[in-house]
């Protein structure tokens, strides 16, 4: 079922596995309440669909949050400006 599957995948993802490969049969998964958006909501990326109707998803912690340009010391920590300006 959807809720039990989400709890199990979340448990694996958060505590045990930095990488997950999930192969699913969409027809059987829909009977259990799963939709495509449920996989994406779990942080999984759709990799491929096979010729026999299966779908392949992956999760990798290093690709979960893309590196942002603004998230660096150039924009946040400016030690050269300490004690020069009063905010």
Main features:
single chain; 87 residues; alpha+beta; three-stranded antiparallel beta sheet; 20% strand
Structural Rg:
20 Å
Helix-residue proportion: 25-40%
Side by side, the strands of the main sheet go: 1-3-2
Number of strands: 3
Poorly predicted residue ranges: none
First-residue to last-residue Cα separation: 53 Å
How much of the residues is beta strand, in percent? 15-25%
Number of helices: 4
pLDDT averaged residue by residue: 84
Question: How many strands, what sense, and barrel or not for the largest sheet?
Answer: 3 strands, antiparallel
The assigned structural class equals alpha+beta
Shape, per Cα inertia axes: elongated
Architecture overview:
The protein is 36% helix and 20% strand. It is of the alpha+beta class. A three-stranded antiparallel beta sheet has the order 1-3-2. The termini are far apart.
Topology, element by element:
Blueprint: H1 2-16, E1 19-24, H2 26-31, H3 36-41, E2 45-49, E3 55-60, H4 61-64
Antiparallel strand pairs: 1-3, 2-3
């Amino acid at each position: 079922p959807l809720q039990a599957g989400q709890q199990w995948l979340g448990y694996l993802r958060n505590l045990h596995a930095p990488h997950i490969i999930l192969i699913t049969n969409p027809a059987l998964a829909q009977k259990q309440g799963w939709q495509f958006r449920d996989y994406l909501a779990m942080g999984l990326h759709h990799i491929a669909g096979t010729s026999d109707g299966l779908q392949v998803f992956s999760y990798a912690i290093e690709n979960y949050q893309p590196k942002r340009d603004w998230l660096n010391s150039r924009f946040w920590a400016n030690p050269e400006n300490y004690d020069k300006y009063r905010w």
